Structure formats: structure tokens, C-alpha cells
Amino acid sequence: MSRCRVCSAAVREFLDFGRQPLSSAFRSPGETAEEFRFRLAVGICESCTMVQLLEEVPQARRAHQGYPYHSSGSVVMREHFERTARRLLSTELSGGDPLFVEIGCNDGVVLGTVAAAGVRQLAFEPSGEAAGRVHRAFFDAASAREVRAAEGPADVVYAANTLCDVADIAAVLQGAEVLLAPDGVLVFEDPYLGEIIERTSFDQIYDEHFYYFTARSVLAMARRSGFDLVDVEHLPVHGGQIRYTLARAGRRPPTAAVAELLAEEEARRLTAPETLDGFAATVGTIRTDLVKLLGRLTEEGHRLVGYGATAKSSTVLNYCGIGPELVPVVCDSTPSKQGRLTPGAGIPVVPPQAFSAPYPDYAVLFAWNHAEEIMAKERAFREAGGRWILYVPDVHIV
Fold first, then answer.
1. What is the pLDDT of residue 127?
2. Which segments cross the bilayer (predicted)?
3. Which DSSP letter does residue 55 get?
4. Rounded to an integer, what distance in angstroms lies between the CA atom of residue 235 and that of residue 240?
5. Share of the chain above pLDDT 70, in %
6. Distance separating alpha carbons of residues 357 and 375, to the nearest angstrom
7. Model pTM?
8. Which stretches of 166-303 are assigned E, i.e. beta strand?
9. What are phi and psi of 8, to 5 degrees?
């Protein structure tokens, strides 16, 4: 039986996606070495209700020199992170000589905005392509102690789409306890289980996301490490996230938003067995419907492509058994992915120019969380008669 990585209680499995590759392991066409795979299954702790993967991929395999995601590649995400930085500058970083620390800065949108305001900043980022003033180490008590000795205490430790990745999350909270000033805060935003279930956005479950947070599970986790959950905020990005704010126990009163979200989760029975089992059943239906649709369109002679070689697409393609025979290519704007093959499924990734040369009949939108931005950019595709295929919250054509 699996044990919870937060509290060591038993974990009940409710969904198994089978053997999956690393979602960022895009291979060269000539590679012959066997791909690393792991069992992508998810369960819930029967005590603290933390939803988590049952098998951990070693962190060193996931954060590497060729890590391909860049926040600034999306206008929506770049603007989101710039707004986030400006908000923190006006609230938590407005005192004398504050220090801002980011865990996982990626290409440095938040860090750069903070630096431009003249505020001291530093990031913990093991990925080789990170930008900004970087301490190249994983964030834990030891590395936090090194930075505190050199820089002093931090007013804000911030992370976006990072804390949910770290199986040993207790080490992160220990690092925050070491590095934060007495009234400092740990602020992090990650995919919200409530949105994943409501939208049936099952493809948000992949190797790089070990945890799927709720207010209830974050509160339990925080209290185990001497913190309080003092604020929550719904975010529309990446298919629905929550921004959580933790402070040292007793230093700040929780906002009304915390109690409201906890009550909402209880009313929805968000982590009840019947809710999670129902979610799993719906995911199975989506798999059947998507494969059937792609197979029918292919048999009818239509030309199909994928749009967005996202980490999420790895779960979809490998869980559904979709390969080049159904989706011959995937168009993506990330140069490091172009000319390579999607993990596991082996579908060639081509640059976005190939999308219009000529336009396909149908495009599977794997980057559905950027649907509005993409569809506006690719208006000519629709005008040429093209149709989008989406599978969240169900399989449909637009």
C-alpha cells in the first residue's frame, strides 16, 4: 500500500494512466535507446486528503539542461506573471530593502519585473536555461541557509507551477521556515484539483505534477510545518489554479477567502470517493470518444494535426494510445521541440509555419488552456474551413 508523502497515512488509488514516458523527454528521430517510463497513477491520502502520484519520478530526471517550457512564450502568461510581480511589489515588498526569492524562475518574467523595480531578488533554479540572478540548487533547508547567510531573510518566497512538482514537499517548507523573515510569506500557485475535476482536465496529471492541491490539503500540510494558510485566490490561467499564501503560525489572521473555499470544497464533496471515482469513469469515456473520433476522421480521409506539444499532451497521447497513424504531426512554437518526437507516442514536432502549409482539416488542440489566445491567432484556419478538436471537458469539435 502506498503511503502519503505528507503525513505517511495510507493512499487510496483512484486513477491509473498506465506506463508513461517523461513529459518533457522529446527524442531525436534517430534515438534508439529505450525510453524511461513509470506508472502514472494518482490517489488520495485517507488522512490529510492530499491527492498525489503513487510513483515518483526522480527530480534530477525532470529538471535538466534541455527543459523546454518558457513562460514568456505565451502573452497571457507573461502578462499574468508581470501582474503578479507588481502586486507583490505593492504589498509584501514595499518596505525597506526587501528580498524576493523565487523557486523555479524559468525564463525570469517575475524575477525580471521585480529587479526592474529595484528590489533585491534571487531564484533557486536547477534548470540550465533559467534566466536572472540564480542560485543553481533545489530549494531546501540547506540551500536556504546558504542564501540567508549571504542575503539575509526573505520577505517573499514565491513559486508558480513548482511546489506541486516536488514530492519531498516537506523539504521545501523547511527551506521556507529557514529563509523567511518573521512576517514573510510563502506564496505559490498551482493547478487546483477542484478545477481539474470540474473540467475533467485529466491531462493536467503528468510526471511533473506530483501533488494536486486543495485548500483542505494545503492547510493540513502547512500546519504540519508550522505555517498557516492565510489567503487563497482563484486564478484563470492554466485551466484553473489557486494562489495560496502561507505565513508562520499566528503571525497573520486568515482572510475570509480561506474559510469560503474550505466550505465550498466540503459542500462539493470534492475529495469524497464517489467524486474521485466518478472523475475516473469520465476520463475513461473521454479516451474512448477521442480515439473513436480521430479514427473515424482518418478513415474518412481528413487531414489531422496536433497543436501544442505540451506536457499535458504526453498524458493524452500515451493514455489513449494515439500515434502518428492518427495524428501525423504536432505543431509547436518551441524551437527546442521542433524536429523531435513527442514522448512515447513518437509524433514528429514541426514549427508553426507548417500548420498553414496547407491548413489541415482538423487540429487537436492539446494546448487547450490557451484556446482563446490560439484561436484568435489562428483565425485564418477557421476561415479556411478548419475545425478544432477539444477533449476538455468532453470530446467536441468547434
1. 67
2. none
3. S
4. 6
5. 94
6. 17
7. 0.93
8. 180-191, 211-212, 227-235, 241-248
9. 75, 5
Q: What are the grid coordinates assigned to 136, written together?
A: 543553481
| Cα angle 146, 134, 53; round to 5 | 85
Rounded distance, CA 139 to CA 125, Å?
8
Q: How many CB atoms sit inside 10 A of residue 259's CB?
A: 12
Sheet with 387-390: strands ordered across: 349-350, 330-331, 304-307, 362-365, 387-390, 396-397
Task: Output phi, psi for 138, to 5 deg.
Answer: -70, 150
Grid coordinates given for 346 = 513518437
Reading the block at residue 185, the C-alpha cell is: 510569506
pLDDT tens for 3-23 read 999 999 999 999 999 999 999
Q: Are 239 and 204 contacting, i.e. CB atoms less than 8 angstroms apart?
A: yes
pLDDT value of position 65 = 41
Q: Which amino acid is at 343?
A: P
Domains in the chain, ordered, with CATH?
A: 11-55 (no CATH), 61-251 (3.40.50.150), 274-397 (3.40.50.720)
Q: Which three three-digit cell numbers place residue 151? A: 542575503
Residues 6+ positions from 155 with CB-CB distance below 8 Å: 92, 93, 95, 98, 99, 100, 180, 181, 183, 184, 185
Mean residue pLDDT of the chain comes to: 93
Backbone angles phi, psi at 304, to 5 degrees: -115, 150
- Sequence letter at residue 345: A
* 3-state SS record for 114-176: HHHCCCEEEEECCCCCCCCCEECCCCCHHHHHHHHHHHCCEEEEEEECCHHHCCCHHHHHHHH
End-to-end CA distance of the chain: 43
C-alpha cell at 207: 510526471
User: Are residues 9 and 48 in contact, defined by beta-carbon separation less than 8 angstroms?
Assistant: yes
The one-letter amino acid at 85: A
